[in-house]
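User: C-alpha cells for this one?
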Amino acid sequence: MNEEEVLVVADAPVTNKIRRGRIMMLVGAALLFVSAMMLFIEFVLTLAAPSYVEADLSKPTEIIHLIFIPIAMVFLVLVGIGGISYVRGHGPLLRWASIGAIALGLYILIDLVLDIRTLAHGIGDPKVGNLNAWLRFLLGLIEMQLFGGIFVGGWSLAKDYLD
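Assistant:
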C-alpha cells in the first residue's frame, strides 16, 4: 500500500459500527485499569496478610500466581494505554491495542478454564465452601472475562475500517 492509498483509507467515513467499537474500547480500557488496580490490591494483601486472602504461600502454585500478578498488572495497563491511543489515533503504545487485544483474548480463554477448574475444586473442598467458591468464580468472571471482553469486542468492531 502506498501513501495515497493509506490516505484514502484514513479519510474514509467512520461508520456507526466503528464508533461503537471505539466507545467500547474506551470503556474496556477504563475497566482494564480497574482490573489492574484490583490485581494490585490482591498482590499487596497477599504479601501483607496471606491469611486474609486465604493464600498459602508454602504452595508452589501460590508463589507462581503471586509472581504473575505484577506481570498481569503491567500488561493490563499497557493494553489500556494502547486502547486509548488507538481510539485517539496517536499516542504512546498505539500498537499495544491490537497486540494486546489478541493476547487478551487468549488470556481470557485461559483464565476462564482456570476459573472453572478452581470452581470445581472449591465446590468439593469443605474448607472453601460452595458459596465462597461461586463468589470467587463470579468475581473472576466479571474482572477478566467481562472487562477484557468489552475491550476485545470494541477492538474487533473499531478495527474494521473497510466495512
